[in-house]
Amino acid sequence: MEFSAADPGTVRPGGRTARVRAAVLRAAGDTLAERGFAHLDLADIARRAEVGRTTVYRRWGTVTGLVADLLADMAEQSLPRTETGSLLGDLKANARLVQRTLADPRQGALFKAVIAAATCESKTAAALHRFYDTRVKEWAPCVQQAVDRGEVPAGTDVHEVIRAVSAPLYYRLLTCGDGLDEAAADRAAEAAATAARAGVYVLG
C-alpha cells in the first residue's frame, strides 16, 4: 500500500517530550521486531527507553495505545511519494519502497508482529488501518494524475490501484518470507498498472 517508515522519532523536533516519545517508540518497535506483540510490556519498554515507568503509563496507558502511537509516528515519518511522470514509474517507486521496508529485518518483523496482533486485537487493527489509509492517500494522487493524463480510464478507484501494488508483497512477507526483491516489486507494479489501464479498477 504505502510507504517505507523511517525509524520512529528520528526526524521529530527537539524538546524533552519529543525525546521521550522517540525513545519509547524506538524501544517499542525494537521489542515488537525482536519478540512480538505478546511480549510487549510497558514497564519493560520504559526500562529499555531509559525513561520513568510512570511517564510511560501516564502518556500511553496501555500496550495497544503505545502501538497505535508507534503506527501513527511511522505513518507521519514515511517517505513521501515519488512522481516520475508515468503511472508505471510511480507505481514502481511505490512498490520498491514497500519492498525495501518489508525486506528490512527490523521493519519486516515489526509489521509481521503488528499484523498478527491486529487479527485478534481491535484497537491494534484500527491503528493499523489508519496507518495504511494514510499511506494509500499519500500515493493515490499518482494514479489520479494518470487519470488526468488519460493513461487510465476515468472513474478508476485510485486507492484500489495503490493497494493492488503492495498486496502481493505483503502476501510474500506473510506466507513465505522470501523473494522480496526489486524484481517482485516491479512485477507487482506492472500488474497493477496493466490492470488499471484495462479498466479493472473502474468504479461501478
From TrEMBL:
Residues 18-78 form the HTH tetR-type domain. It comes from the Bacteria. The keyword Transcription applies. The keyword Transcription applies. Keywords: DNA-binding, Transcription, Transcription regulation. Pfam families: TetR_C_11, TetR_N. Residues 41-60 bind DNA. This is TetR/AcrR family transcriptional regulator. It comes from Streptomyces vulcanius.
